[in-house]
Design brief:
- The N and C termini lie far apart (about 70 Å).
- The protein contains five helices and no strands.
- It is elongated.
- Helix content is about 75%, strand content about 0%.
- It is an all-alpha fold.
- It has helices spanning about 1-10, 25-50, 55-65, 65-75, 80-90.
């Protein structure tokens, strides 16, 4: 039964994927590249922020353990840290 389902839903008789065309590979690669770029951006901005060393270490651990969640959280919650560092330069 699983062979039949695999044959019906995954591969066409010509050997091409029905539900997962080759373009999905490029989409997933682009999504992974975007997340990796976001994590790198987050780590750089965390290091440049005026946070304590412990807070920086915790943010970096979050970025590595939960990349997408960590980047979104830093983008939303880290604005205060970035804003305070820009305000202290004046």
């Amino acid at each position: 039964m699983s062979f039949l389902l695999t044959r019906l839903f995954v591969a066409a008789p010509e050997g091409q994927a029905v539900f997962f065309p080759a373009s999905y590979n490029f989409a997933w690669a682009a999504a992974v590249a975007a997340v990796v770029a976001g994590v790198i951006w987050m780590i750089v901005t965390v290091i440049r922020s005026p946070l304590t060393s412990l807070a920086k270490a915790l943010w970096i651990v979050v970025a590595i353990a939960l990349p997408l969640v960590g980047v979104v959280a830093w983008f939303i919650l880290g604005r205060d840290a970035r804003r305070s560092s820009a305000g202290s330069a004046t």
